[in-house]
């Protein structure tokens, strides 16, 4: 089925991803809050390490045929994350949420780990989403990984497709 996203899909995707991360952290005992601040989206008290995390959530929604594409993070964003984390006394983290091929992948990792994996390029950092890279992430103990699978059982049909 061909999918045409709504005009606000990018905004809705971002909001969904932030709430998903917030929910998952809360579910596992993290005291956390969504914040409207340049650079970070969530502040969380890590229930395990006891550190205060300033999390920037980056999300993408991929159509069929667009799966495996990287998520780019503009170089200028890292300075904004650092500034916000300094103001709030947080350790900088990133959460990357990608919806593709009936899966939602969630990765949470420190800014330090992200930049060790992918040093800044000319304009951005590219979080790779090829199958081989996902396999590497799954075996990396420094990356938190969550994978949701879903199936659309019934959806409206377009009369022109019948």
Characterize the structure shown.
The protein has about 160 residues and is α+β, with helices and mostly antiparallel strands. It is built from four helices and eight strands. It has helices at about 10-25, 75-90, 110-115, 130-140; strands at about 30-35, 40-45, 50-60, 70-75, 90-100, 105-110, 125, 145-150. The strands form two sheets. It has a six-stranded mixed beta sheet. A hairpin with a 2-residue loop joins strand 5 and strand 6. The mean pLDDT is about 90.
How would you summarize this macromolecular structure in one to three sentences?
By secondary structure, the chain is α+β, with helices and mostly antiparallel strands.
Core attributes:
single chain, 162 residues, alpha+beta, Trna Endonuclease, Chain: A, domain 1, 6-stranded mixed sheet, two-stranded antiparallel ribbon, 4 helices, 30% helix, 34% strand, globular
Order of helices and strands: HEEEEHEEHEHE
Query: Which architecture would the CATH scheme give at its second level?
Result: 3-Layer(aba) Sandwich
Q: What is the helix tally?
A: 4
Structural class: alpha+beta
Helical proportion, percent range = 25-40%
Principal-axes geometry comes out as globular
Give the number of domains.
1
Count of distinct strands: 8
Overall pLDDT level: 91
Residue windows where pLDDT falls under 50 for at least 5 positions: none
Fold-level CATH name:
Trna Endonuclease, Chain: A, domain 1
Q: Return Rg in Å.
A: 17 Å
End-to-end distance: 11 Å
Lateral strand order in the biggest sheet = 1-2-3-5-6-8
- Name of the level-1 CATH class: Alpha Beta
Biggest sheet features: 6 strands, mixed
What proportion of the residues form beta strands (DSSP E)?
A: 25-35%
């Amino acid at each position: 089925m061909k999918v045409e996203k709504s005009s606000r899909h990018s905004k809705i995707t971002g909001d969904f991803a932030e709430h998903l991360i917030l929910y998952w952290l809360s579910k596992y005992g993290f005291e956390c809050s969504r914040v409207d601040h340049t650079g970070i989206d969530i502040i969380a008290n890590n229930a395990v390490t006891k550190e205060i995390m300033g999390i920037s959530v980056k999300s993408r929604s991929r159509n069929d045929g667009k799966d495996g594409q990287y998520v780019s993070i503009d170089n200028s964003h890292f300075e904004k994350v650092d500034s916000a984390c300094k103001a709030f006394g947080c350790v900088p983290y990133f959460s990357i949420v990608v919806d593709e091929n009936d899966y939602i992948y969630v990765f949470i990792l420190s800014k330090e780990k992200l930049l060790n994996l992918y040093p800044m390029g000319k304009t951005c950092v590219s979080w790779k989403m090829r199958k081989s890279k996902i396999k590497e992430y799954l075996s990396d103990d420094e990356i938190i990984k969550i994978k949701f699978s879903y199936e659309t059982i019934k959806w409206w049909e377009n009369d022109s497709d019948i």
